[in-house]
Amino acid sequence: MSTxxxxxxxTTYGESHCASVGAIIDGCPPGLELSPADIQVQLTRRxxxxxxxxxxxxxxxxxxxxxxxxxGVTLGTPIGLLVKNxxxxxxxxxxxxxxxxxxxxxxxxxxxxxVKASSGGGRSSARxxxxxxxxxAIAEKYLKLVYGIEIVAFVSSVGKVHLPxxxxxxxxxxxxxxxxxxxxxxxxxxxxxxxxxxITREEVDKYMTRCPHPETSEKMTKRIIRxxxxxxxxxxxxxxxxxxxxxxLGEPVFDKFEATLAHAMLSIPATKAFEIGSGFKGTEVxxxxxxxxxxxxxxxRLGTTTNWSGGVQGGITNGEDIYFRIGFKSPATISQPQDTxxxxxxxxSLAAKGRHDPCVVPRAVPIVEAMAAIVVMDQLxxxxxxxxxxxxxxxxxxxxxxMILPKSN
Amino acid sequence: MSTxxxxxxxTTYGESHCASVGAIIDGCPPGLELSPADIQVQLTRRxxxxxxxxxxxxxxxxxxxxxxxxxGVTLGTPIGLLVKNxxxxxxxxxxxxxxxxxxxxxxxxxxxxxVKASSGGGRSSARxxxxxxxxxAIAEKYLKLVYGIEIVAFVSSVGKVHLPxxxxxxxxxxxxxxxxxxxxxxxxxxxxxxxxxxITREEVDKYMTRCPHPETSEKMTKRIIRxxxxxxxxxxxxxxxxxxxxxxLGEPVFDKFEATLAHAMLSIPATKAFEIGSGFKGTEVxxxxxxxxxxxxxxxRLGTTTNWSGGVQGGITNGEDIYFRIGFKSPATISQPQDTxxxxxxxxSLAAKGRHDPCVVPRAVPIVEAMAAIVVMDQLxxxxxxxxxxxxxxxxxxxxxxMILPKSN
Amino acid sequence: MSTxxxxxxxTTYGESHCASVGAIIDGCPPGLELSPADIQVQLTRRxxxxxxxxxxxxxxxxxxxxxxxxxGVTLGTPIGLLVKNxxxxxxxxxxxxxxxxxxxxxxxxxxxxxVKASSGGGRSSARxxxxxxxxxAIAEKYLKLVYGIEIVAFVSSVGKVHLPxxxxxxxxxxxxxxxxxxxxxxxxxxxxxxxxxxITREEVDKYMTRCPHPETSEKMTKRIIRxxxxxxxxxxxxxxxxxxxxxxLGEPVFDKFEATLAHAMLSIPATKAFEIGSGFKGTEVxxxxxxxxxxxxxxxRLGTTTNWSGGVQGGITNGEDIYFRIGFKSPATISQPQDTxxxxxxxxSLAAKGRHDPCVVPRAVPIVEAMAAIVVMDQLxxxxxxxxxxxxxxxxxxxxxxMILPKSN
Amino acid sequence: MSTxxxxxxxTTYGESHCASVGAIIDGCPPGLELSPADIQVQLTRRxxxxxxxxxxxxxxxxxxxxxxxxxGVTLGTPIGLLVKNxxxxxxxxxxxxxxxxxxxxxxxxxxxxxVKASSGGGRSSARxxxxxxxxxAIAEKYLKLVYGIEIVAFVSSVGKVHLPxxxxxxxxxxxxxxxxxxxxxxxxxxxxxxxxxxITREEVDKYMTRCPHPETSEKMTKRIIRxxxxxxxxxxxxxxxxxxxxxxLGEPVFDKFEATLAHAMLSIPATKAFEIGSGFKGTEVxxxxxxxxxxxxxxxRLGTTTNWSGGVQGGITNGEDIYFRIGFKSPATISQPQDTxxxxxxxxSLAAKGRHDPCVVPRAVPIVEAMAAIVVMDQLxxxxxxxxxxxxxxxxxxxxxxMILPKSN
Lengths: 409, 409, 409, 409
Prior knowledge:
Chain A has 409 residues and is α+β, with helices and mostly antiparallel strands. Chain A has a single domain (96-390), classed as Chorismate synthase AroC (Chorismate synthase, AroC fold, 4-Layer Sandwich). The first copy, chain A, is 28% helix and 19% strand. The first copy, chain A, is globular. The mean pLDDT of chain A is 91. Chains in contact: A-B, A-C, A-D, B-C, B-D, C-D. β11 of chain C pairs antiparallel with β11 of chain D, so a sheet runs across the interface. Chains A, B, C, D: Its EC number is 4.2.3.5. Chains A, B, C, D: GO terms for molecular function: chorismate synthase activity; FMN binding. Chains A, B, C, D: Belongs to the chorismate synthase family. Chains A, B, C, D: One of its GO terms (biological process) is chorismate biosynthetic process.
C-alpha cells in the first residue's frame, strides 16, 4: 500500500491531476533542525523541465510543510507536507481513453481498481515520487548530521552506453567464452573503488545526464536525443553508493538489509532489476576469489580488503560502502505510433500525445537516493533500539568468550 | 524481522544446532484439504544429501504439523509446524571460533547482536529456510487448487555456464559493440517462451543440477564437481515462472508486485540480485521495441503479444506469465585456506572444516518457489478483499464510461 | 504511531498551531461516490463553538480533498485531505511555559520527545481528531451504502448525572448489599433495547448535550454550566451502538473485535475506560443468567434473545447490535488556580488561560462514531478476503457435517 | 491475527486438542540470561488443576524451548517454544456438536471460518494463552533485570464480592444520590495506595482466589464454590499494577500506552471491560479534584501527589505506578441445562458436559501480567530507539529553553 517503514514511516498520496501530492513522515527523531530548503534541494533535482533531456512539463514543486516542526526544529510528531499540482486541468480527451498504453499502468490499474484516473495510470505517475523525495531528504539530514552518512546516486548506463567496464561491477568478469577460465578482474577495479568513495552530488550534477564521466555522459546525451527525436524512449541504470553506514543494520530473516533495499528500489516506477555488490556477474566467480578477506583497519575494527559483498553480509551491513544498481526500463509512453489494441480488444494504432521523458534515469537519481535514505533510517532506528536494550544488560557470564562481542567494540 | 506477509503471514524460528526449526502460518483460508505429504514433497526437494552435488549433511526433515487442522482440513487458525534438527550436537571447537568466515554472516551477526550462535552465522543457516518451504507449500496447495497457478523454478546458470541465449532473457540484446544498433532479438525467443509455458517440476527434477537442458546441465555438473574438488564453491542463478496468476495483484505504491517479490527473494540466504521480465538487459531496448502490444485473447480479454514486462506493469500483474531471475553468490564457506584476519584483527589463514554445499542453486529451487507462492498468496488475499468490497457497490453513475471496467470483465 | 488499520489504513498529522491538520486514507474501496459534504457533516458536528457548552474557539473546519477521487468517485488510491488551522498565531507566552498543566500531556510529551510544541501537549490537542473524523465519515459512507450499517453515539453520563438505570447497561444488577442475591434486571431493559435499536443522529443532535433523554439532558446542561462557571471541568461517558454489522468480524487471537475497538477508543484524547455489552457490571451475573440463549430468527439464521454480549462472542461479531461505553475524564485544562509545581520543580499556583471545553463528551460523539466506523471497515475488509478465498474452494469431503457451516448460510 | 507487537513481537498457535500450543517470540534483546524455569513459573501459575476452584483438567504444561538461546543466553533471534497438549484425544461426540454453547465462541467461529474445530471454540480455548504467558515471562525477565519493573495482578472482585471500597478505584466517589455533591474520597485511599506499591506475587499466591485480602478472599471462595455446586459460573475483575516504568512510553496518537494496553487486555478470552487509573468512576470527579498536581520528588524529577491518571497522561507514561482493571464475564460453559437452539435453529435444552472453570479470574492473573509485560517491553523498545536517536543530535539552538527538556533529565 502507500506506507513504507516500521519506525521511520512514510505515507504518500496523490496522482498527477489532483490538487496536490504529499506525504506524512512519522517517527522522525525530535530535536532535528530542518528547513524547507533541506527538502527543496532534492525536489528541485527531481522536478521536470530541468534540461532538454527531460519532459517539458515545468513545475516548481515548492514544498509546503504543514506540521511536526516549530522554530525549524522537529517535534517528533508526524511531519505533514505537500506540493501543489500546478497543472490540475482535467485531463483532455485523447486516444489513451480508448487505448491502454502498451507496457504502461493504464490497463493494470483498471483491472485492479475497476475504475481509473482520467490520466490513465493513476498513482503510477512520476509525481507520486515527490512525497518519497521529501521524506528521503528529511532522513538524510539526520543521517548526515549524526553519522556522516553520504548517499550518492548516478547514472551508470543509458541504453547500450555504459560506464567503462573499469567503473562498473557488472564487468568484473572477463567476457570470454571459456567457461573454465576463473580469471577475475581485480575486484573492484581501482577506478570504480575511487568513484564509489569520492563521488559527490555536486560532481554528478555537472552532467545533464548525471553520469559523472565526461565521454560516457556525452554518448548518453546523444543516445537520449536520438530517442527523443525518434519519438521513442530509452532505459538505463542508476548506481548508488551509501558511505559510512554503521555495521549491524538489517533484520533477518525477512527484512535483511538488501531485501528491504530491493523492496524500496523496485517500488520506484519503471524499475525492473536490482543488484547489490557484485550482483549477477559475481555469481560467476568462485568463492575463493569472491569472498572478501578480513583485515584490521586503522581504527582497530575489522574491515574487508575487497568489497564484492557491497557492504552487506548475511543480510546485515558490515560497515563497508554499500553499493547497488537499479535497472529502469524505457518509458512506456512514446509518441510514435504503436500497433496495439483498444480496451475493448479492437486492434488499432496508438500515438500518445503529451509531454514525456524520453529517458527517466537522470531524474531518477534523487528518487533512488531518497528511498535509500528511508531504508537506512528505518533500519538504523530498529537496530539502535536493540543495541540500546542490550547495552543495559549485565555482563554475560555463561557464554564462551568467543561468542561475545567485546564491549569496547 | 522473522514475519512476512499481511494477510497470509509466515513467522519462522530456528537455527542450525537448536532443537528444531519451524514456522507459524497465519491466515490460511479455512476449508483447505491439506496433508503432511503436500508439505513434505517440497521439504524433501530442499533437504541436503540429495546428490553428490550437495552437502553430505543428511537429514530427513520430516514435518510435524502441530495445529490449525482437523481431519486433514484447515480451520483458518494458525498452522504451527516444525522439523526436528537431528544434528543438535553442540558445535565443536573449530578455527571459526577465532575467525569470522570471509563473506559469511559470522562477523555481521556478532556486530548486530553482540553475541553469536556457536555455529557462527545463526539464522543465516540454510536450515532457516525450512519454515519458508513448508509455508510456501501450503500457499501453493491453495493457489493450484483454486486458480490453477503453477510455480516452477529451475537453475539457469552455474558460474559461467548459462542456458543457451535462446533460453534466457538476459541475452535478448545482441552483444555487439555498436551502441547505436537497436536491433533486438525476437523477444522472447520462441525457445524461452516454450520453456516458460511448459516447464514442470518433474522435468526439472530429472536433472541433478535442476537445469532442464541436457547439455547445459552436464556442463554445470562438471563445473560444480570442479569447485568441490578444489575445496572451492561457485554461484549461479535461478529462474522462476509463475503461470495463471490473475490480473490485478500488487499494492502500489510501495508494495508493488515486483517490489514485494524482490523483497521475498533477496531475503533468501546468498542472494545478491533480482530481475523481472527483461531485467537489466531490457534497459538497453528502446520503448518502441520493448513495449508489449495489447491484443484480444481468445477469452475476449486483453493479453500482450510479447512479454518483456514479465507479467507485471505499473507494479500490478497483467495476467501474463510472471518470470524473474535471482542471483546466488558462491557459498562463503570453503575448505581451501583463505588469508584473512581473526575477530581480534590478527592476520592468519582459515580453512573451514565441515560439510558445505559447493553450489546452492539446485537446492535453492524449492525455496524460490516457496517465497513466490507466499507473495502471490498474500497479494491475492489483499486484492480479493478490494474486489469483493467494490463488487458490492451500486453502479457508478458519474464517471465517463472510459474510466470504468465493464462488469463482464 | 499515527497510522491505524491493516487494509483500511488511516494516517494523520497535525497539532493545534501548525498550518493544517489532515489525514491520508489508504485502502478505500474504488468506485464509491463520495462528496466533501459526506465528510463535512461529521466535521461540523465535531467542531468547537457549537454551543455555550463548548470552547469558544470557533473554526469552520472545512475539509479540502486533495487526491484519490475524480468526478466524485473514489479511485481506490489514497485519499489525502486537510483542514486549515485558522488560528496559527504563534502561541503566546503564558504560565504554561513554566508549568506543566496537571494531568495534561505537557509533561509527558516533553519527557517523551525532549522538545515540546509551544502549545504544550502537541498532538494531544483535540484538533488531531479532525483527520480521524474525516476518515471515519468515508468508511461510514461505504458501510451504510453496502451493508446498511448504522453507527450512533450519544452521551450517557456527565459527572454523576447518568441516563436512568433503565437505559444503561452498568445498572443491570441491583445495587443491593446482598452478595448472595443473584437477581438480575431483565437484561437489557426494554427501554435500553429500544434506545439502542432506534436512536438516530438526528435525535441525538436535538440536545446540546447529545444525551437523547430530555430530563437527563437538562440536568447535564446544568452540570456543565456549573463546571464552566466554577472555571472547572467535568467528565462523562459516551455510549455507542453499531447496527447491522455482519457476523464473523474480528481476528483472533490478538485482534479480536472488541480488542481492536478498545484500542481505537482509548486512542481518543481523555479516555480512561471502555466496556462492551454488559461490561464491568456484567461480571457480577452468573453464567446461567448472563449467557445469551440462541433462537432462530425470522430470516432462518440464529440470533440471541438477550444481548449481554454486546454483539461480540469469542472476539467475533455475531450479528447482534454492538454496543459499548467509553469513559472520558474531566478536561485537564481549567482556569481556576491549582497548586502544583513548575517544570523545574518549584512549587506554585497555575491558572490556565485560554479557551477550554468544560466537558468534552458532547463533541466526542462524532469522534467515537468515526473510530467505530474505521474499525468495522478494516475488520470487514479482512474478513471479506477470507470469506471470498474460502468460497472458491471445492466442498470439504473429510469433515463431519457438524463441523461445517452449510453453504446456504 | 495471531501476532502482537512491533519490535517485541509474539506469534502464537494452537487450540485445545491439537498436538501442542506454542509461540515464536521475535525481537528479544540478545545477551539475556534465560532459563526454562523463568518461563515455567508463570505457566505453572496459569495451568489448570491448581485447586478445587479451577477445572480438574490437569496438565503439567512443561515448556520446551526450541531456538534462540545457547548456554542459557538469548541470541537475539526468534525464540520458538511449545507445550504439548497431553490431552489430544479426538473430541468425543457431545451435545455441543448440535448446539452452539450460548455466549461461547462456537457459533461465531463457525460463522467466521465456515468450519470449526471439533472442540467448538477453536482458538478461544484457554490453552491458547499458554504462548502469551511464556512470552510475557521472557519480557518480564528483561524488564525486571534492567529497570526493576514489577508487574503484579490480583483478583479484585468475584461476582458481587469486591475488595473493600478503601482498596478499589471504582469506589473513589461516594455513592450518594446527590448529583451536585462533588465530594471525593481522598484519592487514592491510603489502603489502596499501599496495596499498589507493596503487593507481591508471593502475597497474592497465598490465596487460592488470588485476592490478597483475607476476608474478601474467603467470601470469594464461597461465591465460586456456590457457582460450582450449582453447575453455574461467575465472573470477576482483575486489577494489575506495573511499578517502575520509565516515563515516555506510548506512541501517540493511535498507539497510546493505554490504547495498546486495552488492546492487549481485551484480547484475553472472556474480557469485556478495561479501565485505567480512576476509570469510569473518575469521570464523575471535576477536573479541579481529579487533576494530579505535580511535585518535585526526592530524585529531583517531577512526580504527582495523587495518581488518578494511573501512570499515563496524554497516552504516555509519566513514571508513576500504572494500574488498571479488567472485567471477565462469567464463563459461558456451564453444566446446568440451558434453553437455547441448535445450529439448525431447532429449540432445545443444552447441558454441557466436561471440565470447566466455574470462575476464570484466579487463573487469569498470570495472563494479565504476561500481556502487560509484552506491552511494556514493546513500547520500551520503540521509545528507546527514539531516545537513542535524539540523544545523538547536536544541541538545539533555535528553540526557546522552555520548549526543551534539560539534558540532565
